[in-house]
Amino acid sequence: MWETKVIEIRDRVKGSFMEVSVEKLNEKPSPEEWSIAQIVLHLAGAEKRFLSLALESAENPSGTCENKADLSVFDDPSKKLKAPIEPSSEFQKKEELILALDESRSFTTRFLESYTNEGLKSRSMNHHRFGDMPIWQVLELLGKHEQRHLVQIEEVKRRIL
Length: 161
What we know:
Blueprint: H1 2-17, H2 22-25, H3 36-59, H4 94-114, E1 124-127, E2 131-134, H5 138-160
Antiparallel strand pairs: 1-2
């Protein structure tokens, strides 16, 4: 299920900023908030981290986990979460943002081409926030994370355009 959702959500993320000028992509709605460009860089960086962890755990199995992690924290965008890594605030061109998303997506593609849910059944990875979780749940994590930030992108657009 999440295998197709992550593709659909990523397409929506890309589409969400295609008509926005490069100046507006880099504009923050307030000094303490992220610009659309920073959100996009955050998504690309998070995907690389999530999938690198999943790939490493799949290639070097160390544990098993039957219970899914509770990812409901992503369901309420009003609950703010602190990102472990702050995205760059350097001016970004649209092409650079698309490239970052495409490069990070290669990690997900490699994962999907190399493994199946059945093949990873009960095998786990350890996420800094959610602890031990089934490796295959990384796709749900990725999808919910991007969906949450898609809502954020739309809110930023509403405020800056």
